[in-house]
From TrEMBL:
Zn(2+) 2 binds at C162, C165, C188, C191. Binds 2 Zn(2+) ions per monomer. The keyword Plastid does not apply. CXXCXGXG motif repeats lie at residues 145-152, 162-169, 188-195, 202-209. Keywords: Chaperone, Cytoplasm, DNA replication, Metal-binding, Repeat, Stress response, Zinc, Zinc-finger. The gene is dnaJ. Belongs to the DnaJ family. Its main location: cytoplasm. Zn(2+) 1 binds at C145, C148, C202, C205. Homodimer. It comes from Clostridium gasigenes. This is Chaperone protein DnaJ. GO terms for molecular function: ATP binding; heat shock protein binding; unfolded protein binding; zinc ion binding. Pfam families: DnaJ (PF00226), DnaJ_C (PF01556), DnaJ_CXXCXGXG (PF00684). One of its GO terms (cellular component) is cytoplasm.
Amino acid sequence: MANKDYYASLEIQKGASEDEIKKAFRKQAMKYHPDKNQGNDVAEAKFKEVNEAYQVLSDPEKKSRYDQFGTVDGDPGFGGGGAGGFSDMGGFGDIFESFFGGGGGGRRANGPARGADVEYSVTLTFEEAVFGVKKDVSINRSENCEYCSGSGAKAGTTAKTCPSCNGSGQVRVQRQTPLGSFASTSTCDKCAGKGKIVETPCPSCSGRGKTRKNRKISVNIPAGVDTGNVMPLRGEGEHGTNGGPVGDLYIRINVTPSKKFTRKGVDVYIDTHISMAKAALGTEITVSTVDGDVKYTIPQGTQSGTLFRLKNKGIPRVNSTGRGDQYVKVIVDIPKTLNEKQREALKMLIEASGESFDEVAHKKGIKDLFNKK
C-alpha cells in the first residue's frame, strides 16, 4: 500500500480538515459510484481508490502514520478487508441507495405483480404442421387458491394491515454515518413486504394464497407452422399477485421431418425418377403432393436435374392467405446393365444420331460389351 497519494485521490491538499475530507470523499464517491458507472472498469477502480483513501484519512491514527511515513503498511487493522467494497464502511451501501434511487424507487413491494410465463413444447408430424391440428397440452402452473381467492386468509377472515409499514410493505431506516444522517428504505420484515399480515391462514394453501395445479388446455395450432415457431396464448400462464395480471403460455413448435418431402419455408421439394426413353420422348407421371397425387406432363427432351413447379401446392402461409409451391426435380435414370436388345437398340441410336460407335465406345471393355452375343 506504499507510495499511494490518498490526498490526490480525493483531490484535496495535505493538511485538509476532517470536514474537507468528508466533503471531498462524498463528491468523489458519488462521481465514481458503480450504480452510475455500470460496466465501467476504470470508474470501479477509481471508486475503490477513493474508498481506500477515505478509510485512511478519516482515521486519525492511520492518517498520522500516513502523513509521517507515506504508508500504513504493517497496520493489522488495515489491508485486504479494510479497503475493499461496501460492506466495511458502516452502511455505505445503504447511503448510496438513497443517493441513486436504490431505496424505495420502482414498484411497491406489495403492489400488483404479473404472473410468470409458462413454456410448453409440442412435437407435430409433417402433415399436422401443414394442415393445422388441435392439441391438448397439460401444464403445471401457480394459481390463486380457490378457497381464499388468493388472499391467504381462511374463509370468513381477512388479512390485517401490517402495523409496522402501514400496508406499504416498506419501512424507512435512519442511519448515522461519517457523512451525516441518511435514510434508506427496505422491505418490511414483519410482513415480508406484503403490507398485510394473515392471522388465520387458509388451510388449503397454508396462507400462501397460491396452489400448484395441473391444467389441460386445448390449443388450435394453425396450418403452416414450422420448427422454431412460438405460439403465445395470452392469459394462460401463472396467476399474478395482489391482483396482478395472469402471465402467458408459450407453445414452442417442433416438426418431425417428412420421409417423402423436403420443406424450405413454405415451399415443398420432391424427387421423381424417369427412364431415358421417357425423358427423351416426354411422358405423363404421377406426382405426390401434400394434398394427394396429381398428374403432370413431362415434356420431351427433359434433362436430369430439371425442376418443375406446381403452383400453390406447397405449405399454407401461417395466419394468412395463399400457399407456397411444390417443386418436382426430375432425375433421369441411366441403366447400370443392358441386355442384348438394349445394347443393340442403343448402338442403333448412336449410329442414327450421326455419332461414331468407335468414338462413343472408346474403351475396349465397352466395345466387348456391345459385341457380346
